[in-house]
């Protein structure tokens, strides 16, 4: 995000936070609160990741008094959250990040948000711990030794009372599984567990709602939506469920990492037939583009390779280098997925079958391109 329009000291702090924060914070909106400097932004809303969702906090600087730290406005659900003092009643010493505030230091906003977020984690954990639900109290007691768990109590008008847990999984460095890893942040997989608040005893409470979630970047290697969750057996608790889940998930992640080399061998097997790729994804081996020809007709072949390869065959998209729309856009084919394929073939046989298929398909594509030109 551009920080143009902010005074230099605010711009420096916001830029540093967005680029250095370990959480992927987003700027939701910006505005000016100054009567005398209306062209300068000095206020903004941040969407801060928490418990696999976002919390919205407004940061209110004052461009006319640049030495002052920003005020912070928290969400309407958190009216009992008093982090600007050490105690919940609004009394006590200020946060250390405010005591050490300097508008000239670009790191100060990041330090302030990290400290506020730590207080918010403790605040939500306290709220959840005070819920009058025996099952929740038991669940918390069995997992409180696990590091990094976040909790959130959701309630309010028109909302069902429920508690959400975000449980980090797998004590492994996923980034190190990928050669030449481009990820700036450590990739993590989480289990989201949602319990309805039940303020009465039940002999056989229903299973919680379960969902695997991850950093968005991880989908280049492993889609958590494709992972299979173990069944939740009646009477089970999280402390029993998590070890089995992590054992299953670790095998799936390691298999996904090993499939990078399988995809790489497939792309390399295309080169003797199509020539050197015009471009290719050299890290995850999910995409490659080759220049092909049928007589004088030349076209690009885009290969889109799924994380489920070779069980799922690649999709192909043909793009003419000679035919364009009235807007200058190259003519492209629909996605091609219906062609001879077997996941049991070796890479060279896969490449040969695709090459033979495209020898015929290129004639259909050429005819399609010529017809599209006549229509324009």
From TrEMBL:
Q: Name one GO biological process term.
A: chromatin organization
Q: What does the record list as coiled-coil region(s)?
A: none
Where would you find this protein in the cell?
A: Cytoplasm; Nucleus
Among its keywords, does the record have Transport? no
The GO cellular component terms are: BRISC complex; cytoplasm
Q: Which Pfam families match?
A: BRE
Keywords, comma-separated and alphabetical: Apoptosis, Cell cycle, Cell division, Chromatin regulator, Cytoplasm, DNA damage, DNA repair, Mitosis, Nucleus, Repeat, Ubl conjugation pathway
Q: Does the keyword Cell cycle apply?
A: yes
Q: What is its main location?
A: cytoplasm
InterPro entries the UniProt entry points to: BRE
Give the protein family: Belongs to the BABAM2 family.
**PANTHER family in the record, alphabetically?**
BRISC AND BRCA1-A COMPLEX MEMBER 2 (PTHR15189)
Q: What is this protein called?
A: BRISC and BRCA1-A complex member 2
